[in-house]
Amino acid sequence: MIKQFPAEIIDIILEEASVGITLVNQNGDVTWYNNLARLLLGWSEEGELNTVLKCHSKEVNTRVIDKINHANTKEWHSVIKLNGRFIENSYTPIRIKDLFTGVMIITKDVTEREKMVEVVKKAAVTDNLTGLYNRRFFDTIFHELTTNQKPFGIIMLDINGLKYVNDNYGHEAGDKLIIKAAENITQSVRKVDYVFRFGGDEFVVLIGEDNPETTASICSRIRGKNIEPRPDGPIGVNLSMGACCSSEISEAKEVFACADEKMYQDKRRFYQNEGKFIKRDGPE
User: Fold this and answer.
1) Domains in the chain, start-ordered, CATH in brackets?
2) Is 201 assigned a catalytic role?
């Protein structure tokens, strides 16, 4: 025989539980909650009507109410952000004939977990040294653009003289040059543009529109930050670049190769002129 706990013990357990517990009726009104649910979800104790819709954007209100009323025994979950915290809600349908119809929400603070997930996700798509997106993420975005036949522009960039800096001033100086190059590029693009480091001294800017004037303007801003190298001291950031838009090439996948070739033309020009003291026999 199962021993029955007094009602006051059940009340204490529900209040001291390490999860928030909320009961919501079929109209979305909160009918009961424990203290942790109040803290996590912001339920009001001032007599104000609490509603589960408070936790969701207006765009999904109808869907939430519909789910409460038509769910059978299947649970569902959602992670929301409230007051800078990540909150996970697990919804369990409750059907007690003639007494209650609605859902019980089990609430947990999963902020640390979600932050760790964000760190892992970011690490998978970014370059460790510069914080820019990496080659793997470029391949994903580029595949989506070409598959969906969306217009785009590409700017290929390469640091001039990185090997010279590494050989003469050490790899720490080379890393600083790479980081500064990344900063110069990032400061020269728009917020809607993607900047990638391909590794070594190579960078790519991916522009989500086919506009030669836009690509030319970005190139001009980047080039305006270039420092002309001098043989009598450490060289600053100097980037060769080449740009191409999807309208210039019939095959979208060749746009990358087009920009790459233009960049190498610019690089050959650099080593034949102001950078000839760095490497006299051609590009690095």
Assistant:
1) 7-114 (3.30.450.20), 126-272 (3.30.70.270)
2) yes
